[in-house]
Structures are given as C-alpha cells and as structure tokens.
Task: structure prediction
Amino acid sequence: MVHLEQGQVLAKTHQLVQRVYFPHTGIISCVVELKGGGAIETGMIGRDGVWGASQALDSKVSLNHVLMQVPGTASVIDFDRVRQLASERPAFRDLLLQYEQFFLSQAQQTAACNAVHRIEARAWQVVLENE
Result:
C-alpha cells in the first residue's frame, strides 16, 4: 500500500510498465499527449478499478501518460506477479479483462459525447447523474 501525490506520474507514454495499481482512494488519470503540447484526458480510474493490468497481460507498454489527478492510496503489485496470478487464477484474469472492457467503453462514450454534444449539454448531464 502506497500513498500517491497529486500529479505523481505512474507511467509515461510508451514507457514499459513495472507495476499495477489498485487505487483505494484518489483518482488515476489517463492522458493522451498532443503534438502541440496539449493533452486530453481519456479516462479516469477510481477505487473500483485498476491501472496497468492490461499491460501486465499483454503489451507491457503504457499507451498513455498516467498520473494521479486526485491524491490517494493504492495497492501496488509488481507487473510480473500480476501476470503470474492471472495465469494461475482464471477468475482473477477474467475480472481484470472485464474491467478493461468497462474502461474502454468509458473512453468510447466520452469520445462520442465530446464529438456530438456541446459543453453545456455535457455539463447538464453530469449534474443530472449526480442528483
């Protein structure tokens, strides 16, 4: 269990992933860096999620710049240990893959909403969801 500070970088784009993070508190942010120096957040991970698991099961490379948006605590497990556990325990592997599907659908929904809705409509939807 570790404490992660706001702005702490967990991985840089195209960097080899060494650890898998299971946040208990705080928010992990996945950001696509743009050539002009800007960046767009493509996903957030909270206490119901995991970051680095798909890399542990597949490519070993981070597709995004990943940092702590909100400080918090997380269980951190070595990349190779997660790979070993997923190999030994199919139910654990299935759970990790299900979360990756959820995370992908979150990113796709965000992209779709950003493409077709004006900021006022997106903000109003957030207000309605939180009531």
Remarks:
- The chain has one domain: 2-103.
- The chain is about 40% helix and 30% strand.
